[in-house]
Amino acid sequence: MTHNKWTSLAALLMAFCSTASAEQNTNEVLIEAPIQKVYDYVSQPHRWHEWHPASLSADTATAGELKQGDRFSEKIRIYGQETQMSYVVLIASPPNEFKTAFTSALIDGSIHYRLEQRSDGTLFKRTLDYSIDKYIATLKSGMQGLSRTALGNLKDTLESAQ
């Protein structure tokens, strides 16, 4: 995918994340570690599986620091299903901010890390904006299909018993 296509994807996802159907989950924690150490760790997607229970693995195709516009992929397990996520880095501003937009077959959104140096460590804030509209549409379609099959089976069973 070209840089322009990723920029378009990022713009689409950002617009999407601001719609009424998007959900937001914000958490924060004070970490007794220097801000640069925290930033260096959390801005390495290949290490996310070490601390985030949904992350299984990630491939950044680079050994260095991720910069704005860089792409990477991650495999996650969500809703009991594994899915491949595609990301683009929207903001990479060490040591204070790191933001990505993502898309997958099940979920779309963004992850935003904001870090603040405190006298007793680093305040780490993580905001996940997401929509599971695709997952719900897939589930709804599957349920409709199951219902059609069930009624067909019911019809066949009762009519063949006559």
Automatic annotation (TrEMBL):
The keyword Cytoplasm is annotated on this UniProt entry: no
A family per Pfam: Polyketide_cyc2
Superkingdom in the source lineage: Bacteria
Key words, A-Z: Signal
Keyword Signal part of the UniProt annotation: yes
Signal sequence region: 1-22
Protein name: Polyketide cyclase / dehydrase and lipid transport
